[in-house]
Amino acid sequence: MIRRHALTALFALAALAILGPIHGAAAAECEPKASCFGVESLSASLSTSQAGAHPDVSFSFDITQDPESPLNKSGLHDSYAPTRYVRVDLPPGLLADPNVLGATQQCTVAELSGGIEGECPNGSQVGVTKIYTILPAVFSEPIYMMQPPGGDVVARLGFIAGFLPTFIDVRVRSESDYGVTSEIVDSPAAARLVRAETTLWGVPAAASHDTERCTIQEATSGCVASPSRPPGSRPLPFWTNPTRCGVPLSMSVSAASWAEPERFDTKSAEFPTIAGCNNLPFGPSLEVEPTSHRAAAPTGLDLTIKLPASEGVNVLEPSQTRYMRFDFPQGLSINTGSADGLGTCSAQQVRFEENAAAECPGSAKLASTEFDVPVLERNLKGAIYLREPEPGHPFRIWIVADDLGLHLKLPAELEVDKATGQIHSIVLGAPKLEGLPQSPLREVKLELKSGFRAPLVNPQQCGEYRSHYEFTPWSGGPAAVGFTKSFTIDEGCETGGFNPKLSAGSTDAQGGAFSPFLFTLTREDGEQNPQGLDITLPQGFAAAFTGIARCEGAAAETGQCPADSRIGKVVTAVGAGPAPLWVPQPGKRPTGVYLGGPYKGAPTSIVAVVPKQAGPFDFGDEVVRSAIYVDPTTARATAVTDPLPQMIEGIPITYKTINVQLDRQDFALNPTSCALKQTEATLTSVLGVVAHPTSSYAAVNCAKLAFEPALKLSLRGGTKRSDHPQLRATLKMPPGGANIAKASVALPHSEFLDQGSLNRVCTRVEFAAKACPAGSVYGTAIARSPLFDFPLTGNVYLGTGYGHKLPDLVAELKGPPSFPIEIDLDGRIDEILRKLPDGERVGLIRTNFETAPDAPVSEFSLVMRGGKQGLLENSENLCLRPRRATVAFTGQNGKVQKSRPALKTSCKPKRRGARR
Question: With the C-alpha atoms ordered 42, 45, 49, 55, is the resulting torsion angle positive or negative?
Fold first, then answer.
């Protein structure tokens, strides 16, 4: 990140025309001789090895000489070939700050190119070099800091090679360790250098260098006549040693000659090992503030890291930061809604480990960044982008800055506690670098975007929230510096209630018609999150299960349900603020609601499968099962849902809307009663608060439905007085009409209850416990419905405990083990008086079914056994006259049908003419 690591260029400057392949081969081994071009020796030194100090940097080199060339007066041979290209790589952490010279003290190209007539500013000189050439002379040359040309050249140095201006361009190794590289391209061939001794000043404006400053003109005479010349500026550090101790520091040189420009060789030299890291200060501080102080609201975050340093040439640079770790307070969590439209930036798009600008899409941007690096002319601006998730590492990010000729790309990662949702840490540092780039920092600003789709959500409650932060220095030594920082949430504090809303109904309210049924739960920001959910559907709402496959076993556990078991879908909105994340997202896997098998004691269930997809994240499918219990008296269904997921991979799921649509064709069936009904919900919050929202519902046009029940009755077996006949009743209902609400059947006065049977009964408690005595069974019943592809069958009991004078007739109708639904029909038995045509008043036994479910029944059959264990007893000979029952049916739509159907008996037809 160091734009002006220009000092490295000075190094290159000394090496300028003589660096080349390193063979050290004898002339006799080179053919052609240019192949022997190279650097014979290379050395480097620092005036101090104290970490963070400001040393003079010195180095010298000799290029390989041709022993067959004549000696000059300095005892040197000529080089094998003139140098064309030189590249010098400085070790990371060894840096220079050209900004201390100021823009007015930098030399321009025109000033340097003026030759002996040129004149660079006195304060632009940053060092000197002695150049030995094949000519019998030693040239002392000043080295100047030039005005940079821009682009990816972050700094430029210049000097006169012979009589020709030579430039050294400085770049940052963005593709590797962020160290500095300086290059001379197309060096003047006339500069036949064979040796150079160079010193770059740690404090260019120091008074000790006043006598070393010289002009271009004075350099022609070796700068020996240069007067004491102050720079006109106050002394400030230029070079700074690394703040990492005990590791080798090496510089390398690669060079090619004009004779063989494609052939490069490399040689390296070691600097003294840096020491004294324990003397370095390290006192980072941090300021953190959410962009919103409203509880439970989406928020950005402004974070400022400060690493102050005292100015002065005798002050050590504070240790550079190696790692940063931030533990945010529990309650400040990731906003699910921020994933909507969120993109990612791949390694290819960011151009990781390339010295090139990133091409990340704007949709992947999470934050803006700004770095105050003292060696840069201004703050370095950048951004944070979301990286492509990887299994086990979903929240990866890039820290990117393509600015001031730099191409900073640092991988980082958010760690989120999967159990609590706390953003446990952001760990910054690239593995290849073993941490952050070794660069001085004074301040780091990070601004996580705010607004509706801000990436964070404030805690649910107002109060003070503390965070923990740790910074690890490159200087090593003791453990990381840690401290806490707090911020306050003090707006919108009226949170914590629990008042969810419910809306439910069919899309077409026509009574008795099939129509998709929808119910929607909504929750406001700041309310407690729902965890438990029970929904009781309106009485009379039914579902047709005929021909639908089941999602059972492993398929129900994993959500891999067969397509033909689908009965609907789920649409949910999660996240805080007015722009939550809607699931499913366009182009993503759809949600599904599937019919399941028996579950948790319920006869059937539904399996809701919701993709855990949000923007670029895909965590598979969330499967939530609901047991569907059916009230045996009213057939009213209640869905009891397993606990709603509260956390997915550490992301809190805050529900704004839960919408379930039962939209399978010919599945959801409206009631045939248009009376006002309620959909009722029982919701339990994560803190145990219970809410009971309701939604009114009514079907329409029920009065237009036909109501045509047809009942047939017969008495089989004994026909004489005191015999116990078998009773058979068969009810048939045509499709499409209203369902039965009530039924009343009064038998003719020839039938009464056997008083001895009244002692063989099942109590209500026994019936509920499924423990009725065998003697209380008096018959069987079977019901067929278009809702099922199986009949409901069961026993008919004589029961007590229902609050009536006489025992009740109770039919227990059950489905098969694969669908163990149960419907109980309770018939109250009483006696009514009826006046016969001859004026006699007789009592009739009547059975009243007063609460029949609003559910379609195509056929219902009842068989009451006869014989000694029979319930009915003849009061007279059945064959004396025809017998008729008195029947009244009331439809769910209010229509009433009355009739007096004849009872078939076992009596033989009378012969014509026989006496009656």
Answer: negative
